[in-house]
Amino acid sequence: MNNVIHILHLEDDAADAELVKAILESAMLSCQIFVVRTRDEFSTELCHGGYDIIIADYRLPAFDGMSALRLAREQYPDIPFIFVSGALGEDAAIQGLREGATDYVLKQNLSRLAPAVERALREAENRHERKRAEERITQLAAIVQSTDDAIIGKTLDGIITSWNRGAERTYGYTESEVIGKSISILALPGHEQEITKLLADIKAGKHIEHFETVRRRKDGQEIHVSLTVSPVRDAEGNIIAASTIARDITMQKRDEEALRKTNQLLERVFSTTEFLLAYLDADFNFLRVNLAYAQADEKTPEFFIGKNHFALYPDAENEEIFRQVIQTGKPYVALAKPFIYAEHPERGMTYWNWTLQPVRDATGCVTGLVMILINVTERERAIVALHESEERFRAVAESANEGIISVHKSEIVYWNKAAQAIFGYTAKEILGQSIATLIPSEDLERYREIMRQRNVEDDPHPTANLVEAIALKKGGTKFPIEASVGSWQTHDGAFFTAMVRDITDRKHHESEREAIITVANILRSAPTRAEMLPVLLDQLLDLFQAVGATLAMQNPVTGETLIELGRGAVGKDFTGIKMLPGEGISGRVIASGKPYLSNDIQNDKLFLRPDLLNGAKAAACVPLLSQDRPFGAIWILSKNPIDETMMRLLMAIADIAANAIHRTTLHEQTQRRLDRLTALHHIDTTISASLELQVSLNVLLSNLVAQLGVDAADIMAVNSYAPTLEYAAGFGFRTRNIEHSIVRLGVGQAGRTAQERRLGVFPELHHARIKFERAILLRDEGFVSHFVAPLIAKGQIEGVLEVFHRSRIEPELEWLEFLETLASRAAIAIDNAALFKNLELSNAELSQAYDATIQGWSAALDLRDKETEGHTLRVTELTLRLAARLGMRDTELVHVRRGTLLHDIGKMGIPDGILLKPGALTAEEWEIMRLHPVYAYDLLSPIAYLRPALDIPFCHHEKWDGTGYPRGLKDEEIPLAARIFSIVDVWDALSNDRPYRPKWSVQEATEYIKKEDGKSFDPMITQAFLKLIVQA
Known about the structure:
By secondary structure, the chain is α+β, with helices and mostly antiparallel strands. It folds into seven domains: 5-137, Rossmann fold (3-Layer(aba) Sandwich), CATH 3.40.50; 147-254, Beta-Lactamase, CATH 3.30.450.20; 276-397, 2-Layer Sandwich (Beta-Lactamase); 400-502, PAS domain (Beta-Lactamase, 2-Layer Sandwich); 510-640, GAF domain (Beta-Lactamase); 690-831, Beta-Lactamase (2-Layer Sandwich), CATH 3.30.450.40; 865-1031, Hypothetical protein af1432. A six-stranded antiparallel β-sheet has the order 23-22-21-26-25-24, sandwiched between helices. The chain has a six-stranded antiparallel β-sheet with strand order 29-28-27-32-31-30, sandwiched between helices. Strands 2-1-3-4-5 form a five-stranded parallel β-sheet, with helices on both faces. It is elongated, with a radius of gyration of 52 Å. The two termini are 83 Å apart.
């Protein structure tokens, strides 16, 4: 095991305690054992705690194991407890197990101790993990049940499977009333198709957000809801169900309806107000007037449309005022100067106070103006009307949700209740104060610039009405506002009015959303995990103005935590730090799956390295979860406090990062496994196709170095004549010193691995328990890590495969398994090469034996028929030359040679009286003689080795025109080898003496061959043969 096991050992016999320690160490268990002998010592150590397992003798002089078991179970019910005793009977053992002992081991059989310890620790860890998983499930269920939103789970057919308390509050149904029923019970009559469509979209993999619709509660009440419907997928990504989050927006809908009615009311106000309202274009043509305006001149509204104002009411002074409003874009208010609207014969001159307000298009250009006129003919009535209007304005202003503030000469002159709620000042406290009271000092100049722009009469493009700014609350807290600013001129100077909203919450949400979108886009664009992590941490530095950001990952094999990467002025110093499982804040967050926040990190006892903080005062750590299981954590370090809003944003980013890291990790694992499978296929193909061992080993080693990411690798093969390992192949070494490697079996890291037949892992080559025997030979290589895998084929050790790297490697289990897989391929290659070499020797010996036998048969035939003695060897040599000239391959020439040597083997079946007859043969004797090719076939065809050589013995008497024997074949029906041999056989017979005639001259034999061309011989072969003879 890789972790240190802390063991409390109750034992009064020092020798037995040492024996237990030796047994555990021999089993490669890393442990620290604290031995106690008495009850008091045992109780004291239990109080101290920190032990992973308790081992106890059953009988001691003043104390017994059963009492120790009861004491341990009172304080630590889950810690494993093992009896190790030489006097433990079966009944006592059973009683101990019933009272909570994990196992018992007899001192006579201590070989069981190490397995029992490992098994007890594994079982304890499994119980702990199961308990934590149950706690996480309980927490998740509590969150689902406590939310105000309705969360509903259902099948793809719409059958309800889960129903939280929020759903009960929203719809009025209890869980027991709806589970197993269709979700359509919530639909309004006639709207069931809407639910069917939603389910169809979910089956198609769509995610539905903020879908607004109407649903029916249990009591029949109709409510407006906003739905978010998501597909639920299994581990393979298949959609198996749907999840709905529903929020009751009935009140929101009522507010929207109220706003719509307000707008309608404003339209009615325009039509019905007693003020005279006229809308004119930039050339002062009427576009619209209200009824009051038309009635004041005893006309209809339609009368004015399209007519020019100053064509109806000429006034050069007022026309210039109108023009200034159009040109400057500034409103004009005339409270002291009456506007002469018209003269009436009966009632004389009428006067109106009037206001001109510029109208702008979407680009800010002035396109016209609105003229508002108030009849002031009767001063008292006008004053009363003015007071009434003021009261109406005040009532509206005081009831408005937005803060309304009026400023004159930089002093606040109006302040409504909403402004008091936003800023914290009462009207009594703020009226008469400078507007600077509400503005941060750094923003005062911007405020003054806005005021100046609105005061400049000839400015054609004043500042936009809607602005965002930073303001100050009563206590000095800064917060964001949105203000709609307007201004107007009076005889006493400019007035400014602002409608103010507190947009703190909106800004927070916008900031979080933008940050999350930014991080998600960046992570999505990073193709690999190595490129993704620095970008992620740099984004955290920017978003949180942090001085450090780190990523901690848990080793899935050892459970250790590694700070894989740190960024920032402080964070970079944490890169590479390792921690034991559950150690420190990172280990705690990964183990619990819960975030951790400390705004006094320098004094936080859980933080392991305060020496690296370099001024950082606050830290936040959140887990990275995949399928609700933590696999790492993200840190930020800051010189400023970290609040809950920042924590919420960090957790949201961690969720996105966890998915991205998990996705890229899976992708890279898949790609790595595919690459390794491809490499294995390449290696297997090379081993199968190549007969050269060196080629196979070189291909294997080059692929190993590439796939495992190491610097060098070699293969040391067993010397079959000495107990040593010797260099066989290598790749990636700087020098050739490795080629001089000779290691005795059982000596050093390589020799011990071969002898023990198990993987040797040495992350620290020169500090390993087993000495590296070639340290001097390979000192120029600079190797740090060394891994050795035995090469075993068919139960025999063939050598070892060595892997070297020039920096420390902490390999994963998959890495080691792939190394062992490559070792098995190397062993197969070496074994195959040995088998092939032995097979080649056997084949060569067998082939030589066959050829000797064939030559023996040929010699025996020559001895029997003195007439043809020497003939066989001559025709063999000439036949092979002719066959080679005609393009026959070497593999075919082997069979041609054998067939030539055995061409007359069938004559072994011809009686001597016929074969050796000195005179001419009778017709009956010729019939027997012509059977010798058949005899040859019968004799040779049962021999598989000689079957490919049958063409010549069986067919060499066939003729091109079909007049030969034994089968009368013709043309290309005759095998090529037989056609070649037949012409050589005739040539040799003509060119050598026979008892019944002397040999022919070359010219005579040549003429005969030409004569038989196309009769006895293949014309193509005849031409080739004659050229060969001429050249000879």
